UniProtKB/TrEMBL annotation:
The lineage of its organism: Bacteria, Pseudomonadati, Pseudomonadota, Alphaproteobacteria, Hyphomicrobiales. It comes from Bartonella choladocola. GO terms for molecular function: oxidoreductase activity, acting on CH-OH group of donors. Gene3D superfamilies: NAD(P)-binding Rossmann-like Domain (3.40.50.720). This is Uncharacterized oxidoreductase YghA. Residues 1-73 are annotated as: Disordered. Keywords: Oxidoreductase. InterPro entries: NAD(P)-bd_dom_sf, SDR_fam. The keyword Oxidoreductase applies. The keyword DNA-binding does not apply. Pfam families: adh_short_C2 (PF13561). Residues 1-14 have a biased composition (Basic and acidic residues). Residues 18-38 have a biased composition (Polar residues). Belongs to the short-chain dehydrogenases/reductases (SDR) family.
Amino acid sequence: MLDEKLILSREEALKSGTDGSSQKSGHQTATGSASKAQLKNPLDAYPRPPYSTEKQQAPGLASKLTPLADHGEKTYKGSGKLLGRKALITGGDSGIGRAVAIAFAREGADVAINYLKEEESDAQEVIELIEQAGRKGFAIPGDLTDRHFCEKLVEEAVQKLGGLDILVNNAGRQQAVEALADLTDESFDKTMKTNIYAPFRVTKAALPHIPAGGSIIITSSIQAFDPSAILFDYAQTKAANVAFAKSLAKQLAPKGIRVNAVAPGPFWTPLQPAGGQLMNALPQFGSETPLKRAGQPVEISPLYVLLASEEASYCSGQVFGAAGGIGMDS
Ligand code: NAD
Ligand code: MG
């Protein structure tokens, strides 16, 4: 059963500053009241720093985040943009991938999610949310650093979904290390295997199944453009993700398959307290952005919806950002 407390209510999200009057804003304004609804002010629509300093063991759980993240559980309203589509999302249990899974399902897609077995509880909530949206949800746990599993994942997803139109390569590993001398070969290798090898392998296995009109999306990062000192290995993988999208878009254009990257700035997800940041920096996560806070996963899922949908039929080989006011070239 979905635990009610795991779903951040709008009220909770607004506690940190607004008067709560934007209740009808954003995705909730699909009906006639849109013109009367008050605009959501992005400065204070969601919790601002300081955040909790509670460290998690990688890969971390959405259910243990303080404050809980908003993946759109109570707010995302679909409008049939992905009706009948079949999507596979890696890292679909928590964070950005979870918000994308919820949005895709509410837009009418059946969704398979991959995650690590330690994340089963997060994943089961996502499956419930997909089913509550009236769509089919499939949980396929497994480790993407295993080449054979990457192939097995696609095979199982295609078989369960009955095809594959949309692939979101979103799973990622991020471990902050202050000095190069302390970055072990094993850790470097695991980051490369998760963030570079897995999207290559999953996409290669998926391609024979993706028809013309299909869409491939990869989650890169602002780190591709403005790497942090403590994310030496991770930042390189995210730059590779940009090249993945730009190169593959050219290769697949003749087949009618679009490929794009999304480059998030700081988002409040388990990745960060599970080793992605130095613990002393975690409370101020996102405060360096002009919007002075971390983004919530629900604030980026609409980009994935657009890129997955036919409405973005002329968008390929691009990088789309959401980074609280930080530009990709800054
Ligand atoms: P998250 O922890 O919620 O999601 C990452 C997911 O990756 C995990 O849920 C896990 O299921 C999956 N994963 C990691 N290693 C795996 C493995 N070996 N096999 C299978 N799955 C594995 O965090 P998130 O922030 O939502 O991360 C999603 C993507 O967003 C990542 O690619 C990350 O690099 C990127 N990103 C995040 C931020 C941010 O600030 N949170 C910023 C830029 C980019
Ligand atoms: Mg997770």
